[in-house]
Amino acid sequence: MLRERSLLLQRLLFGADLALIALAWVIAWVVRFEVLTPPQWVPLSQYLGFLPFVLAVWAGVLLVSGLYRTRRAQRLTLVAYAVARAVALGLVVSLGALFFYREFSFSRLHVGLFALIASVLLVGLRFGIYTVLRRGRQSGKNVRRVLIVGAGKAGQRLARAFRHYPWMGFEVIGFLDDREGAVEAEPPDPLYPEVVERPDVLGPVSAVASLLDRHAPEGGGGIDMVYAALPLSAADKIQEVADACARHTAHLCLVPDLFGLDLLNSRISDVDGLPVIHLMDEAPLDIRQVIKRTGDVAFSLAALVLLAPVLAVIAVAVKLSSPGPVLYRQTRMGLNGQNFEILKFRSMPVDAEAKTGAVWSTKGETRATRVGSFLRRTSLDELPQFWNVLMGDMSVVGPRPERPALIEDFRHQIPGYMLRHKTKAGITGWAQVHGWRGDTSLTKRIEYDLYYIQNWSLWLDLKIVVMTVFKGFVHENAH
What we know:
There is one protein chain. The protein is built from 15 helices and eleven strands. By secondary structure, the chain is of the alpha/beta class. The N and C termini lie far apart (about 70 Å). This is Undecaprenyl-phosphate glucose phosphotransferase. One of its GO terms (molecular function) is phosphotransferase activity, for other substituted phosphate groups.
């Protein structure tokens, strides 16, 4: 019954979306040709004649966009993002079709207005639905009763999320855990800082079948969903829960307790229908990655052009300070362990590492030339790396790349060291602006690098760039 009702609502929403698409098409014509002053007036009938094709294109786009998957627990911001992505795809397909339509030229302003209005209407519809559902669920209507198997960190965090966002409509009736009386409340975390009482453990995991028997949804007031929040090592218990749910109508969801692992860009994909959980991966390509790369290219180009006089002066100073080339090329490890040649202004004599080999620079460094020492203290020796950014080997912001010879030791000494290579290396980074550079704690540096990767956003990048301007160039640990 729940699935049939869900399918009916999805179909109604799909029909409403198509109606709003048609309405947006007409409103865009009114704004373009009635409100604004067009150079040439085009009758509405011309655009209405093309509307069936527009609806056919957008019907396909909306169906493949994933907008109609059941996501009771999804936030409105993510829904708005999904709508924007679907509208962008529909716009590309529509413009491609209009390019081959030669009967008359469609107004580009109309198409732009149509995309904007369609986005507002589709998001507005969902906002209205969310508002109605939220009020209903907060008053006890359309609520799903949930049983959580596993009262560990994952299970308790899941329960806190359900309580923190009551509009989701989930009511946790209790937990099952083999520890029973030994289970204690997990401490508050940054996401859900409110204090939570000790979990209400109803019995061991083996009691799942009898509990589902006593609380059958068909009788009313039963268990609608079971969340198995267990570690992957508990495969036998997960199977026991799955077998019990297979004999009932309760939905089963798996929430693996992976808090003991350093997760980076975790996500779920499928290989020919087989679900695959990515625990440690590079960030998937999305619009944010495109924006970051576009910003890297624009920023590095501007830096190389605007700083050209400074670069020229430094190049002359380096050349006069000691024999040898102006630029120093050194192999570093970047994204996914790929090596590349990093560029720096040469700060040492050519044969400085002939005897020592690859070593870290330390405070009181004596190998650098007088000019090189100044360049290091002010981080000006790093400026040529904007060329590495332009070539795509690096980003403006990211973990600092290290030499492969040194990494061979670090990877065995520092837990999680290689995880920093799940994103592009950067000229500046979260660790650097907090002073973890030069001959400082490598463990703290990795801690800050992993924080950056796990919490990356465009705003965090912008914050790091601003922090670099004020306290990232000259620092006591730069040598």
